[in-house]
Design brief:
five-stranded parallel beta sheet, Rossmann fold
Length: about 140
Amino acid sequence: MKVLLIDGQGGKIGRQLAESILHHIPDVELMAVGTNSTATASMIKSGVNHAATGENAVIVACRKADVIIGPIGVVIADSLYGEVTPKMAVAVAQADAIRILIPVNKCENIIAGVQNISTTELLEDVILRLKQLVENRR
């Protein structure tokens, strides 16, 4: 299974997720794409299989992914303080992939009905859901 992890800003969530995915679900092919070079560099430190940066990398990687994971902002143009371009948001939203979106209430995007839980709890839920998807595909 090909998993695409997209993150921006400093890449902290992406790095934590990548480390956890590689530890708990080592048989997936994990690609990390940062909306900026700092985010990409952070995710590379986790040991991802492949990494790239920028708009075109997001667009191309979305075509190949079975699962896309990232903050909810990856489907909202101009989110993450402008790092997500309209083309990126469309590529993620229209990808023929399952999306696991992390409800981060930042950057002027508030998701109603979502409890204010810790980032750790959010990331644990992502791992649980990805494990279920991998198990169902076997």
